[in-house]
Amino acid sequence: MSKLKRVAILTSGGDAPGMNAAIRALTLHALSHEYQVVGFYGGYNGLIDEDYTELSAANVGDIIHRGGTILKSARCPQMLSEAGILQAANSLRKCHIDALVVIGGDGSFKGAQALQEHWQGQLIGIPGTIDNDINGTEATIGFHTAIDTALDCIDKIRDTAQAFERTFVVEVMGRDCGILAMEAGLASGAEQIICKELIEDEQAFLDELKEEMAQSLRQDKHPSYVLVMAEHSLSISAQQLADQLSEYTGVDSRSAILGYVQRGGAPVAGDRILATQLGVAAIEQLAMGTGGVMVGIKNNAITTIPFADTANTQTRNKDFVARLKQYRL
Ligand SMILES: Nc1ncnc2c1ncn2[C@@H]1O[C@H](COP(=O)(O)OP(=O)(O)OP(=O)(O)O)[C@@H](O)[C@H]1O
Ligand SMILES: O=P(O)(O)OC[C@H]1O[C@](O)(CO)[C@@H](O)[C@@H]1O
């Protein structure tokens, strides 16, 4: 057994639906081990500024169903400098923290890794981001909700596309990862999915896409055509692509950028359950004396992966692309 007394939690990077459910599970499970629990506000900013609150069962009641994060999230440029990292490590010592749980994306885990070099306590990561771009877990907290939110929007856009016989380019988030676009596209029956993972040569990809689209629209007397596009996947914007499509096909094309709506809203059941499982698993890892890893889920089993390996998503993305190609109709 470790001599763990005081556990801290922070949420960092883009907020994701289900982060609150993770804070709840972490807090309740840590309290059941009789650990004290504190939450730093605003990601690494709160850590550097020693801005924190004690967390009790009462603090985390009534939050499992809420989007956002009660601890607030942020990006913290100070962590990109040695001085900032040293300050954060110093705060952990001053606040008598024995273990820190970081809920965030792979950038947040790089921060955790950097911290580990200057602080002797235990560090555990929980994957929380709508992007699902982290190695070592099949899903990140927030991904399931973000797909459902995108899907709801795409379905609505399909209605107006149908009514006006227009085509729509719908841009979804994901940073540099196309998994959100692929899964939302698959679930909405989008005619085209555009993401980096599917593009080798942008011009060739676009030429083929335009021709395929023109042929399909020629055959359909009352055309509606939806393209789901991952942000940052092309060198042109969604609106520029829509303009090019209008010109090539002669069918009126519009763009819609879903944006931050995908980060908000009540977490769906899948994210609440995942967050609860990972929250409990993180505390169990701490109780065993583990540190320097992220907890994840694969084939319904809890896994751990060193922070250093969480950003290596190449093989994982290839698996997703293979699955996508298999299911596209
Ligand atoms: N190389 C790094 N060294 C130290 N800290 C880092 C590093 N990269 C990121 N961080 C810290 O983690 C924070 C969050 O990182 P980032 O903005 O990449 O988001 P993320 O955790 O990947 O989540 P998401 O992709 O969902 O927004 C940064 O603002 C910074 O404080
Ligand atoms: O909130 P910001 O800093 O604009 O970041 C937006 C990015 O964060 C995410 O929402 C989560 O990583 C990405 O999908 C998006 O590219």
Description:
The protein is of the alpha/beta class. Helices cover about 40% and strands about 20% of the residues. It contains ten helices and eleven strands. A seven-stranded mixed sheet has the order 3-2-1-4-5-10-11, sandwiched between helices. A four-stranded parallel sheet has the order 7-8-6-9, sandwiched between helices. Adenosine-5'-triphosphate binds near residues 75, 106, 110, 111 and 175. GO terms for molecular function: 6-phosphofructokinase activity. InterPro entries: ATP_PFK, ATP_PFK_prok-type, Phosphofructokinase_dom, PKF_sf. Its cofactor is Mg(2+).
Keywords:
binds 6-O-phosphono-beta-D-fructofuranose; alpha/beta; 11 strands; ATP_PFK_prok-type; nucleotide-binding; 329 residues; binds adenosine-5'-triphosphate; 18% strand
Question: Secondary-structure blueprint of this entry?
Answer:
Layout: E1 6-11, H1 19-32, E2 36-40, H2 44-48, E3 52-54, H3 82-94, E4 99-104, H4 106-116, E5 122-127, H5 143-164, E6 167-172, H6 179-188, E7 192-194, H7 202-219, E8 225-230, H8 238-249, E9 253-257, H9 269-287, E10 293-298, E11 301-306, H10 314-327
Parallel strand pairs: 1-2, 1-4, 4-5, 5-10, 6-8, 6-9, 7-8
Antiparallel strand pairs: 2-3, 10-11
Helix pairs in contact: 1-9, 3-4, 5-6, 6-10
Subcellular location: Cytoplasm
Pfam families: PFK (PF00365)
Catalytic activity: beta-D-fructose 6-phosphate + ATP = beta-D-fructose 1,6-bisphosphate + ADP + H(+)
